[in-house]
Structure formats: structure tokens, C-alpha cells
Amino acid sequence: MTTDIERRVGNLLDDSQGKGREHRVSSTASVEDGKQFPTSVNNIKPTSKLESDSAKEKLSAELKQKQEAMKGSDGLKAMLAFREQLPAFNVKSGFIKAMTENQVLVVSGETGCGKTTQLPQFILEEEISKLRGADCRIICTQPRRISAISVAARISSERGENLGETVGYQIRLEAKQSAQTRLLFCTTGVLLRQLVQDPQLTGVSHLLVDEIHERGMNEDFLLIILRNLLPQRPDLRLILMSATINADLFSKYFGNAPTLHIPGKTFAVAEFFLEDVLEKTRYNIKSEFENFEGNSRRRRRQQESKKDPLSELFEDVDIDSQYRGYSSSTRKSLEAWSGTQLDLSLVESTIEYICRHEGNGAILVFLTGWDDISKLLDKVKANNYLGDSGKFLVLPLHGSMPTINQREIFDRPPPGKRKIVLATNIAESSITVDDVVYVIDCGKAKETSYDALNKLACLLPSWISKASAHQRRGRAGRVQPGVCYRLYPKIIHDAMLQYQLPEILRTPLQELCLHIKSLQLGTVGSFLAQALQPPDPLAVQNAIELLKTIGALDDMEELTPLGRHLCTLPLDPNIGKMLLMGSIFQCLNPALTIAAALAHRDPFILPINRKEEANDAKKSFAGDSCSDHVALLKAFEGWKDAKRNGAERSFCWDNFLSPVTLQMMDDMRMQFLDLLSDIGFVNKSRGPSAYNQYSQDLEMVCAVLCAGLYPNVVQCKRRGKRTAFYTKEVGKVDIHPGSVNAGVHIFPLPYMVYSEKVKTTSIYIRDSTNISDYALLLFGGNLVPTNTGDGIEMLGGYLHFSASKSVLDLIKKLRGELDKLFNRKIEEPGFDINTEGKGVVAAAVELLHSQVVHH
DNA sequence: GAGCACTGC
């Protein structure tokens, strides 16, 4: 018997059939192989081209004349005197000589040596004075946006120019440069995008890649490309800049390129390890297992089965002989110390010790995360001595806390008041608190890793590297000599890794693999095998399999038409697909918003004392959608409305939202829209209404999410009064406590899609959207008939759907039509779905609104 | 019964 819904859907489908058949999907893709799409990213080439040689000569002469005139000006004399004090100044001629004689040069230099501001400037001055000013194009990459801007600004002022004249910058969605610009600072990501359009880096004379010691994925990726490019560009000069003395790795990678070391210039920072800190503070460490019977170290070892190698190493140390010169209370404390748990009371005592016994100056405490910071803040505020808010200004510093944009962090406190900053890794390189004199280092940081076997991203506190420890210590010596208190034994420090594992070995690789394909760099595997430290082949295989699953790569590992579109979007491939689906299925605005939020960062702030209220605000945005993605969408829409009414500030404050993040999302939406327009998916002249027919239809929005996020699917299984969640890869997972779906026991729909699954203390689904069977059947993975023929399988047989034959047939038919529509649009982006696909889409919407499939 | 390192196109 045909149900009402079947009849309605069937009618809608039949209406659309006639038209659909006349326009079979063409087998020839209109997107040609290898064709590179234009993108709206500003070109990093100069905006005007100098046609004739005589014009060039004239310009070169002008540049030289101007530079020499500036050198003699009074305003620049003081600046010059300052520059001459920098250690980099002493290597100027050696640097220029080495750079002239070698194609590749590796420069290492500690903080304060001036390599970032001086070396690019030396090149610029040299080129101009040699009358090559018109021809030179110097690019210097930075890993972070802020440093690209601030370094460019600094050099402009050192040259007595305005930013954007000969020195400029370009970061995503923001640039300051002109036809005169000869030295450009950009983020590594901007250069990598540029390489898609200009693989030869035409016109670039010198390229400096800064901060390569950080071993970020973009920088490691860029180095592979450059090593391949150099033989084709013999005139290009490459300068690699690293903060650590160990430049050998990079030198070897580039055929034993010469290295140049510049000594640093910072104040001395004294260093104390746990044993010394215990002597000073007289703090007694209590064993975590004091309550257990037979508190022996052996016993502890049995209890702590999951100890890390470093903490374990310390278990075997003979405390009494190793620390003979130390007091018995210190030895007792060392005996009780456990590397696995951070002792916040010890941190508190160390802060108190500094405040009571040491001179003025801010204290910077490195902790691992939100929880540590929050708990320590409570402790300090309750402390008899430190709790005096007239004497102490205690500030949390965390990427998701509201204090992140407050001036207080950087400002000098009033006399008699001491600033104490409780920070994560963010204070290691991203945020600099200048007046820090004391650093307390807990020795750990939360670090991502990638478990390729379980296809699982992990975020676990782990011991930092010696290089990080050195960097943290250096934060105390920016304005005067400082002191660093390390809350771990020297033995642990000596056993730390020299460097952190490079990011390319710690993260999923799907976006990188897509990028490699878009640059036509051969097979992914052979290309990545050329990396400084090649990733695990299994991690590469996982990435390729995912790209095949979502249809970005074909069986031959070549880009499909969909894959080529995804290459143009600066997004994770899943999110990019969601955006394309949104534009095809009339949910453009929600797709833009959700894509921007997922690609950038969560706009919800995590305040310290008002967690519950913040959670409630997020939940109220979600309404009854059971979706974190809808919460993001509604929050953004609310902000846009509030902004129109001039109520932005109070709206953000009341709803625990970050205005900075929301603004960035808004800008990113514009960029995505431009890119969709470039690839023909959106015709801007038709106005937003042409692409948003279903934008208010949450079922359709969730279906689009499903289309993009697949195969990130979770099964919701009723377990009595609660629901348990399962994934194909790792089995049982939990909803992250910060999700609007946390604490919900019963869900209206049987599945969730998610954008991120991370193992911390448990395996958590961070943001989820509850979806129906229909959403999965119409927009999820391919439908595979079961062996018995009475059902449908998906996700390699992990998901199973059964229904009456008539319903199954209807679904298969509708799905087939939707796929045709999708493929046609992918291959022919200008195709107007409204002319021929309206009926199919309407049928899909009709089905999504009914939820009656049996499991 | 609990939890949210950090960059970037």
C-alpha cells in the first residue's frame, strides 16, 4: 500500500522526470583536466607591469636616489643607530655575499638578533643600490598573520616610509601593497595558494621562509615544492630562517646549503628546576596515592599503568643518591612527585614565593589548558596573600577566553601592582607579554597527534620539547634579566625531545593531499615521500581513501570534477563539499556561515565564571534542532541583525560571542562567495534570493550538512533512558560536554553527523547535528543493496536501512535523480537547478520533512 | 559524569 508521503514524493518526482531526461548528464566534463580555476585571492605579483627596459632603468634610479636621500635624513639616523646595534648588522656583508654566491642559504638566529626585520631589508637595500630595484621582488613568508603585518610595519618605519610603499604585506582577506612594493610579507598559506596559479613564482627574485624551525605543515610543504622548483629557477634565491642553532637538517635537505648563524640578543634568564624550586619554596609534594595502603613507588607504578616514558624514567631514579645535597623534605617531595599530574598547589606556592622574595616584574605561568587556568585562578584568588587584588592583577590568557583581546594583558600594571598571567602555549610565540621577568613552566602542553590506525585525532597533554622549554624561558628576558622556574626535575628536561614532532606527522592529511593534487605535483605518495620527515604511509592512505569516499579523487587517485572545485576553496574538503552542496540545494547562506565557523574557529567564548550561562546561550540558539551547527548559524544571524541595529556589543556580551571571530567569519563568507562566483556556482548578479530558497528549512540545512560531513556519521542507539553513540571506526564515542547535544538523553532522529572527533579524556564528538535516515539516504554515502535485496547498506555495511520495497524503490529513484542533478551542476556549474531540478529538490524536501523509516 | 592546545588559505 502506498502511503501518503510516498504518493506526494512520487508525484513530485514524476513531474520532474520529463525535463530531466531531456538533459542527460554529459559524459564530457566541462572542467578540463589540469585547468586551474581563478581565485579571488589577490595576486601577490606587482599590480602594474613595467613594459620597457628604459622605464625600468628610470625606476631603479629613482628608487636608489630616494633610498639614499632617506639614509641621510635626521629622522632615520636614530633608526639607523638602533639597527646597527642588532647582531644581524654585523653579518650584513657576509650575508649578502653568501646569498649572491649560493642559491640557498640557511640562517639561524635566536630571538632578538634581528634576522626577520634586517635580512629582508638588507636584500632590498642591496638590490636598490645596485640599480636592480625595479626588477627585484622579495617575498618573506611568516607562519602567522600578526607577524606578517607587524614586521612589514616595522620595516616601513625603519625605512621612513608608509606601509604599502616599497614594503607591504598580504594575508588572507587583508593586504597593504602597491605597484611600488618590492618587499612583501605574507603568510605561508597565501604563498601556497599563489603557487596554484603561478607554480614558477614568476618575477620573484628572493624568497625568505621564516620560522621553519616551528615545522608547521605549510612550511614543510612549501620546502618540498621549493626544492623541486629551484633547478627550474636558477635566478631565484632562497633564504631559510630558523630560530635554532641546529640548521643542519635544513642545510642537508637542500644539498648541504651553507649556513649562517647570528647570535641572539636577549637578557640572561636564570633557570631553576623542580629540585631547586622545592628547596626555595619548602613546598611538600603529597603523593597522589597517599591514601593507598603501602605507598611504595612500586605500588604506584602498578597503579599508573599509562605513564609516559619520561615520567617512568624518573620512577627509576634513586632519589637519595641523585639528590644527596638536597634537604630531606625536598627528597621526600621528589619521591612523591608524579610526572602525570600537574600539582597546582606547587604552582601557587611558586607564584607566592616569587611575589614574596623576588623583585618587581610580571609573572608568566605556562599551563596546559582551560581547566588548569580556571582552577589556578580560583586558588590564587582564594590565597590569603595573593588574593589581594590591590597588589596582584591575575589574568587568564587562553585562545577561547574573553581576556584574549584585552589590553590589560599587554599594559604595564600601575606601580605597586604585579601582573600574573596564567597562559597556555599561546604565550609561547603568538602573544608576547613584554614586561615578563618570571616564567613558571609546568613543562607540558596539549598537543595534537594522529592515530592513523584508528583514523583518530588526539589532543593530549604531553611533555614539551627542549626547544619549547627554551622558548618559554626566553619569554622572561625581553626587558631585563629574568628567572625561569621549571616545575619538573632537570633529569626530565634532559630527557625531553630536542624538537617537537613536525605537524605533518601529527595531523590528518586530506586537505594537504588535495592541495598536492591541485598543484599537479605527481602522486601524493611519491611527493610526500620527499618531505623533510615523510608522514606515515597509512596516514597518507587514510587521506586518499577519504578523498575517494567523498568523490574528490577517482580510483586512479586523480582529481574528479568535484575534486577540482574543492581545490579552489580554502577549506577542509568535507567542509568545501558542504558549501558546494549548500549552493546547489538552495541553502547558500547557512552553508557559507557554517563553513566559515568550522574553518576558522568557534565564535562562542568560554568565560571562566559563567560557564553555565554561556552553555545556555548556545543552547538557546540551537532551539530544538539538536545541532551545534544550527547554533552557530543562528548565533551568526543574530549578530548580523544586532549589527544592523547597532546593538553588536551587547548582543555579543549577552550571548558569550566573540565579535572578532564573527567579523572574521563574515569576511570569510565573502571570500567563499567570491570563489563560488569564480567557479561559476553562483551568479552574483542574480542576488541572494536565487540561492536561498531553503535556507530557513532546517531539515534541508541538516541534509546539506550530512552531504558535506559524510562519512563522519554516528549511530544513536537507545540504551534504556539514555542514548549511546557509535562510530564505524572506533565504536563508542561521547558527545562533547560543550555541545548543545550533551546531556540530551533522547534524540528525535537516529543519526548524528559531526565535523570533529577528538580523543582527549574520552573520544568526543565535538560538534554534532542530529539527522534522519532520509538525510543519509538522499545525501550521504552511496546506496548499496544488501545481499538479501530487502535493504540498503552504507558506510561499508556499517549502516543498514530496511523498508518496504516500494519505499526503497522510491528512495533509490529519488537518490538517483539527486545525484544526477549534483553531477550535472558539478560538471556544468552555470546550470540553473531551478529550471530543471525544482521537482526533484522539492521531492527531497518533502521526504526530509517526513520521518517514518523503520530500523 | 564531564570539558574546550595553537596556527593558517
Description:
By secondary structure, this protein is α/β, with parallel strands linked by helices. The chain has 5 domains: 1-30 and 775-855, no CATH class; 53-262, Rossmann fold; 270-501, P-loop containing nucleotide triphosphate hydrolases (Rossmann fold, 3-Layer(aba) Sandwich), CATH 3.40.50.300; 511-547; 570-701, no CATH class. It is 44% helix and 15% strand. A 9-stranded mixed beta sheet has the order 14-15-21-22-19-18-17-20-23. An 8-stranded mixed beta sheet has the order 4-3-5-2-6-7-1-8. Strands 9-16-13-10-12-11 form a 6-stranded parallel beta sheet, sandwiched between helices. The chain binds one DNA strand of 9 nucleotides through residues 39, 41, 143-145, 171-173, 187-193, 214, 216-218, 368-371, 398-400, 424-426, 428-430, 445-448, 459, 461, 503, 511, 515, 569-571, 599-600, 602, 604, 606, 611, 671, 734, 736-738, 742-743, 760-762, 764, 766.
Structural category is alpha/beta
What is the arithmetic mean of pLDDT? 90
Query: The biggest beta sheet, please?
Result: 9 strands, mixed
Amino-to-carboxy terminus distance: 19 Å
Per CATH, the class of the largest domain reads Alpha Beta
Helical content (DSSP H or I, runs of 4+)? 40-55%
EC number: 3.6.4.13
Region (Disordered): 1-55
Domain Helicase C-terminal: 341-520
GO molecular function: ATP binding; hydrolase activity; RNA binding; RNA helicase activity
Provide a short characterization of the protein structure.
By secondary structure, the chain is α/β, with parallel strands linked by helices. Helices cover 44% and strands 15% of the residues.
